[in-house]
Design a protein that fits this description.
about 0% strand, mainly alpha, about 200 residues
Length: about 200
């Protein structure tokens, strides 16, 4: 694999990730409600989901993914249910104190798992890795040394693209301190996360 092909892959991935979709909406909602301490693990989970799809594509498991399409549909619905749960929790928190209390109960692992499930059930991610990736890279020639480059490049690209979304949303959360504004931000977060759940649910068929 040449540097040019790796760079082409990273640019194409960055463009695909930057286009707002369920993952970006859920990340912004999580950042508004929980700050960077919840957003960063979520980005890591999203990136892990991308790497999982990358491995499936390179190993030629697109056909397997089609055979087990029902299993991926179940994964999507699990993600939808969890996102709706998060939306409900954010919507019902009306003060800064309650926001912090609920946020402390949600672990970094849960945020990462949420990001992973969203990516595994995101049709945009499936399309990119199972349909577009073979056009960008010659998957038949990729070896372990190539993986050693592609995987870190994938993580770096995801963090470079998604972290600004999280920083902006988290910055707004830290800047606005009144309980009324926290209520508004929690409900905005709930609306974004709920919208992400609906978007994934409508495509889960």
């Amino acid at each position: 694999m040449t540097f040019a092909s790796l760079a082409t892959y990273c640019v194409a991935l960055a463009i695909a990730v930057a286009i707002p979709g369920p993952g970006v909406m859920a990340l912004i909602g999580t950042s508004l409600g929980g700050g960077l301490k919840r957003a960063v693990p979520m980005i890591a989970g999203i990136a892990l989901g991308d790497v999982t799809w990358l491995v499936l594509a390179v190993l030629g498991l697109a056909a397997v993914a089609e055979v087990y399409a029902e299993a991926f549909t179940i994964i999507r619905y699990v993600g939808v249910a969890y996102l709706l749960y998060l939306a409900y929790k954010f919507w019902t928190n009306t003060s800064a104190l309650k926001t912090e209390q609920v946020d402390n109960k949600r672990t970094a692992f849960a945020s990462a798992l949420n990001g992973y499930v969203i990516t595994m059930g995101n049709p945009k991610a499936m399309l990119f890795y199972l349909a577009l990736l073979p056009v960008l890279l010659d998957l038949t020639t990729i070896g372990l040394s190539d993986f050693a480059l592609i995987v870190p490049a994938t993580y770096a690209t995801l963090f470079i693209v998604l972290l600004p979304y999280a920083l902006l949303a988290s910055g707004a959360r830290e800047w606005l301190k009144s309980s009324n504004v926290y209520k508004m931000m929690n409900r905005t977060a709930a609306a974004l996360i709920g919208t992400a759940a609906i978007a994934i649910g409508l495509r889960a068929h």
